[in-house]
Amino acid sequence: MNLEDRCPCQSGDTFGDCCAKFLNAVGTSFPPTAQALMRSRFTAFATGNVDYLLVTWHPAYRPAVLELDPGQQWYRLDILDTCAGGPLDTEGEVSFRAHYRYRNLRESFSETSSFVRTGRQWLYVQALSLA
Ligand SMILES: [Zn+2]
Fold first, then answer.
1. What's the rounded Cα separation, in Å, for the pair 113 and 111?
2. Fewer beta carbons within 10 angstroms: which end of the chain, N or C?
């Protein structure tokens, strides 16, 4: 993915001005909010960045191995709601709907995810609800 392309997280910014700042600078540049982390993780799914998904996953909940199905193409993210998760918070929740294509079918699912902040790093904890 080129830095000039539209960011997969649908922020409206280019990839270079949006999630690439975090995906390409792990440990140096941190998403400031739970929602920004959520967006960057969606972009990691969309670009097949398994390392980023694991490093931003809370160690107590992180899978030992994560394999992404290359046939699953993530193309749209709708943020539905957020609760806390700001720069001064230590916990937050983000509700979203993620859209993907799989074998020419368009599918989507919604989830409310919980996040915690450790130092400057927001981490994905787990899905609180699925629909
Ligand atoms: Zn983005």
1. 6
2. C
Query: 13 Cβ partners below 8 Å, 6+ apart?
Result: 6, 7
Q: Which residues lie at CB < 5 A from ion ligand 1?
A: 7, 9, 11, 18-19, 39, 43
Q: Is 92 helix (H, G, I), strand (E, B) or coil?
A: strand
Give SS3 for 37: helix
What letter does residue 7 receive in the DSSP assignment? P
User: What domains, with CATH codes, occur in the chain?
Assistant: 20-130 (3.10.450.50)
Q: What is the mean pLDDT of residues 76-94?
A: 97
What is the H or E stretch that residue 23 is in? Answer: helix 20-23
34: amino acid identity, one letter: A
Give residue 47's Cα distance to chain centre.
11
Residue 85's region, left for phi above 0, alpha for psi from -120 to 50, else beta, is left
Residue 131 pLDDT class (50, 70, 90 cuts): low
Rounding to the nearest 10 degrees, give the CA dihedral for residues 31, 32, 37, 38. -150
CA of 128 to the centre of ligand 1 (A): 23
